[in-house]
Design brief:
This protein has helices spanning 11-22, 49-59, 72-88, 151-155, 178-195, 207-216, 249-252, 315-334, 354-361, 400-412, 438-442, 470-489, and strands at 91-92, 100-110, 115-118, 121-123, 130-131, 135-145, 163-167, 200-204, 224-226, 236-237, 241-244, 258-263, 265-279, 290-296, 301-306, 309-312, 340-346, 370-376, 386-390, 417-419, 447-451. Helix 3 (72-88) runs parallel beside helix 8 (315-334) and helix 10 (400-412) crosses helix 12. The chain has twelve helices and 21 strands. The protein has two domains: 39-107 and 270-489, 3-Layer(aba) Sandwich (Aminopeptidase), CATH 3.40.630.10; 112-263, Glucose Oxidase, domain 1. InterPro entries: M28_fam, PA_dom_sf, Peptidase_M28.
Length: 504
Amino acid sequence: MKTFFLAPLGRIALLGAALLISRPAAAQQGRPARPKAAPAADNRAAIRDSDLKRDLFALSDDHFRGREGGTLDELRASMWIAEQARAIGLQPAGDDGTFFQFFHIQRTRLTKASRATIGTHQLVPNQDAIVFAPVNAVVNAPLVYVGTGTPAEVAKVDMQGKAVALVFSGQPTDGLSFRRYLTATIRDRSAELIKAGAVAVVVVSDARAQAIYDNWGTGYERGRYDLPGGPNTRVLTQAPTVWLPAAALAWVQQAGQQFTANLVVESFQYPSVNIVARVPGTDARLKKEHVLFSTHQDHDGVRKAVAGDSIWNGADDNGTACAATLALMRAFRQQPARRSALFVFHGAEERGLLGSRYYSAQPTVPRESIVAVLNIEMIGRNAPDSAALLGSQRPHRNSADLVRTALAANQAGPRFKLDTLWDQPTHPEGWYFRSDHLPYARLGIPAIMYTTLLHKDYHTPRDEPATINIAKLAGVTRWIYLTGWAVANRPARPAADPDFKLER
């Protein structure tokens, strides 16, 4: 591992600055006082399409194998980012004079030896079937089939000591996306059946659930992740819930079958990392404060192949934001602002915002010095003239002052049409709660999120760099820059809303 340091300022520059400071005022020498210098013009011209495209394609290349959080691939990508920061000329702002802040992920998953059977059908968990949560369980019980599990169907069956099988059915009526409705329904229906005496629950996909099973099921095979000691590190001993593909219905509903399971949980830790770099401010007082530009470098890694492609590159999620953050580094390095600019690439965001949860709890600068967080999440897809600013309306807004600055920057720059629906608490995706600004907002630090929202290739191997609108990526990057430049140069830090309270 290399440790990178920024060379100190040259003595000539320091001497020149000292001489300028010590010169007597012109008025004291009998000459008219000169007018105060106007604030330096912004440096948005430093943000170039060619740089963004080069960095996007490099980080989203198969070479980094999808940058899965907590793997060597994520660490290699993080080393690449740190090398770019060093080459640009930023100061390392991680631990011990480096660009790195390492932290541990705790993973809880089923062992590879875990097995289940239904009749004569052998099931390898998370290969032939998905175990909804990693649990320790030993089950040997008759399997009863209850159709779609309506109250009338369930009432006909004695479930005490039995495994209960049903076909998923239903659709959301409260605004949830189907994916979130599906997982919530499986969880809640299983809990009801287990409370009624079932020792295991088997859920078979219908046609709509099968699409979610195919696309999102790979996430369950990895188990659960958390920071050590977090709620997802608990090893549970309880009745299991097994989720099967639609094709299994033909044999699951056969009478007289036995369900067996021997599920064993293991838990272990390994490292992830935040990359932290800094451009010092120019104002003797304000340079002690920081405008934090936030993103994450990880994605989904190597998973189930789709059309022959098993590397989930995450070009938009979040290669676009990483390329944008490198461009912001260049702009601030070439022309620093009055406040310092702090850049944090958070590790393991896809594991549950782990890097931002860790950094916000243990920042490498004084937490009170962070005046605002500008978080960047997926900024290269969808209509070329549209974008969104999350945290811009209640209850998600925690600084009307910061939001006004961001909206003014949009008008001064790209003039995107802003989608406001995704920031509403009723939006089915709950997008506000799924990126790295959230831990900072919960601490009362003014925080907003720039995004161009989800698309059909989200969390699939089709999220490739060739699909990115580079011109749009550049436009959003300049918008973020103009916001950060304004915050970094204004006399007062953005005011926090005193009555901020999230809905969950």
